[in-house]
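Quick entry, no commentary yet.
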Amino acid sequence: MGFRSERGPVLIGIMLSTALVAIDATVIATAVPSVVAELGGFAEFPWLFSVYLLAQAVTVPVYGKLADVFGRKPVMLVGIGLFLVGSILCGMAWSMGALIAFRAVQGLGAGAVQPMSMTIVGDLYSLEERAKVQAYIASVWAMSSVVGPTLGGVFSEYVSWRWIFFVNIPLCLIAAAAIGLRFHERVDRRRPRIDYAGAGVLTVALTLLILGLLEGGQAWAWSSPQSVAVLVGGAVLLVLFVGIERRAADPVVPLRLLRNRLLVATNLVAACVGAVLLGLTSYVPTYVQDVLGTGPLVAGFALAALTLGWPISASQSGRVYLRIGIRSTSAIGAAVVVLGSALLLLLDESTSVFQVGTTSFVIGLGMGFAAAPTLIAAQSAVQWQQRGVVTGSNMFFRSAGSAVGVAAFGAIVNATLRGSGVEGDRVTPEALTAAVHNVFLATAALAVVMLAAVLLMPRDRARGRAPAPETVEAAAG
């Protein structure tokens, strides 16, 4: 179990790969001034974030299907390879346009690494072991949200912003070596029937939809012709995708899985997790700095309390769900998230940083009991041949939740500031407090939706067990 077994090097490779993907989502945040000073293109720099998240999110379902056909190992190694190539190109970028394009290459690699990490864990570890192992991975994601911006600032100030990408080279090679040499799997070498039409239409549809959510209210107004065209076009292609999948011999996303009650519920939980996390990581540091008047380091520590609570509870969730069941454990976790989100509503201009950190810690505890067990339930409910698709679907919904959160929370803040008569950059602490309070109110509502989604899950047949694969097949029809 864990690092001391023969699976240890593989787990280390998975955690290292996960860290690379997670850190690079935020590492460039504090390096933006240095990047713009050298390359120019200040107006385009938000695309450095958007294009990475977009390329990652839209490819996750496709990689999940490919893993079920060709195996996890080759897909994971391709993902690491793409991420490595993208990192080298980013470090050599000669213009803002080139850097944005190369960030897309990084995102394509990240789209494989993210679901494959969780899928390989599902393959290697038993139901009893999986919660603790996924706690390790959850802690990597959590710590990366703090480490990323810090690392970007250090490299930009003392070396060069280009090294935030070049440092990935040895780390990618170590991760690839650990997985390539130590991870062994047996794959059913059936003749693959790739649903190229479905994969292509799904990728374009998701690209348009997520692009519309990321850029709506930012690059263009929600009611603008660009916004309407992008969102409507994505929706039409999504309907077309459903029609293609109904006729496909080996669909990239089996529709019967999306009709299953357990999988629908766990995907909804994942979307809420992504949105709640986005709200916290985006606005807790802003609130602590601009309202409470602290520095970036203190704001990072306040948010870091979340990263402490999550792995603690996730590592213990296995013991709990083996006693009371996965659904009950997840319900407890979601209820704690609701409690923590309610505590967010008590924050104001006179709040102490300690109270902010304690509230973040409570939410982190709830997330650990809710996020890991629901993913484990989804993975345990299908056979090996569908685990990649199910895991990819869960990861996609979390990314989509984050994208929707970006759009929704940004719209809430802008609307609140406009209602307060704030113009330009002259934002007062009072106006910002009101705006962030509304974001926290939306976060609390999402936490309630998360709890409702958990309660939609079917009851466990036995303590600590998710519904068996045959249950899913029967329920899916």
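second:
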Amino acid sequence: MTGKRPILFATDGSPSAEEAQKEAFELAQRLDAPLLVVSVVHAALPAFGYAGYGYSNIVVELTEAERHRVTALLASVEEAAEAEGVHCSTVAADGFAVEEICRVASDYDVQLLVVGSHGWGPAKRLLSGSVSTGLVHSAPCPVLVVRPHEQAGLHVAAA
């Protein structure tokens, strides 16, 4: 990386992360800063009916599949960044998303963290948690939460 502090883009590959990716690329270009991209391996474990023989094999297979997905996602973002002229490096993390993203932000002394917002609303956010909200409260640096355009338009119209 160059001498400038990087911008960290946290992605899960979801559609909401696409808007955040565009914003992260643009900020890196404007600030002439390197871009660091992080994605966290999160294997969805089967809930019921697998407690017997073979459960550990299923967990290993799901985790391995998720690692491959994250590796492919990071390679894709890195390729897109380089095509836009943005110096980019990547980190695959393993664990709880908010904790791991904050750890990477601290380890690399990033100047800004860019993340997308799923726009789930209060009910779903209560049940599943919100990574972007967790990052706003826990990150060791400023956090830019990028909302999808259609969600942002709804809030403007309601104002």
